[in-house]
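Chapter summary example.
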Amino acid sequence: MFQHGWTCIDDGYDFRLFTSPCLRVRVGWLPEVPAEKPIQITASTHPLKSPLWHISLDDQAPTEFLTAVITTLARTLAESPHTLFAPDNDQPDDLPLPPTWTGSSGPRVSHGKAPDNLASYSATPYSHPANRPPEEQTRWEFRAGPREHAWQARFSPATPPVLVEAFHRAFTDSAPLTRHRYELDPLLLPRLTLTGPATASPGDAPTTSQSGQPMNADARRDLIPRNTTLSLIETLDTLRGRFLDASEQWKLVDETGEVPAEPSYPGLLQQALDSQALSREVVQLTVGFAHSATSTTRAGTALLAHLAIAATHSSHAVPYFAGTAQEALSLNSLPADRKYREERMVIIHATAHRYLRRTSESLGDAVKDLRVHLEVHRFFPASTGREIPAPPPPGQGAPHR
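The structure predicted for these 401 residues follows.
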């Protein structure tokens, strides 16, 4: 794009916008725009007019597909720009059907589906969706990936055919896409097969989805053993519930919403002690998992991140509960400052509760990831090998170095 004179605006964070020399074509990475796909490509007949056509893609779309469209776009804008701004762009009603794909009869079809059912494309009515302006309606839609991890690309009715066809060629190309194993979501690994040479370097896994082909052995090595996963789910879910119960049951104010005239120092200090015990269980579990070989896998690294956050939040709650007890003990020492001290005590106690809830949320996120990970095991036959032992349950200690 830069070789054709395009400029780029980058805020240094998530926003990036490329603009053509004529200011009429824009390619943007806009993840902060609500209810929109993060990759947006638009063109207008005049820099200040509404878009004539519009392309939107999910950020999971392979880079190779996006590159095919942008390269064609930049070349066409430089060589024959008038073809990009014709208001009567006549998109094809059908596209070539790859040899192994299924669709309508004939060499060109209005919809097609890959043999493994993980990719499809289709032409939609010009009025879909009817509540959007014409330039944002969808004429062609491409979709790929399993249901729980699918991505989409949409082309509005006036999008130049040359761009639709460029994307279609890349989308239906049977050549495998080269990816490093650590770049792939664990949920996708069972659906991929190794297509590179047997001497491929560690971590390199050129893959392609092929229905009925043997599962990638590398994918299995990235899994947390099934029994370990089940044990972790049970332990973490129990801990999550205990933190949530504590945040709801450990009270400071009475039934009227007021601070008691004589807050119980022993009772509040007991909350600090119980909070410390809960935190110790989370830290022990985190240390135990960090020392296991499983923690170095892709899924293990993600789980360890959730556990580390939970350990941090749970540890932060303890001093705030202790601080609440300290404030209660000195509440009557200076009667003139009682109202101020009551407000301060309520804020400190509320902060402790917030850390309990955050801990519960982090543990809940870990459980969600593990449940998804457990689904991956369905694609592999039961292992007869020895599994990696799960981290010791809280309260039984953990290995030290």
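To summarize the output: Confidence is low (pLDDT under 50) at residues 197-215, 384-388, 396-401.
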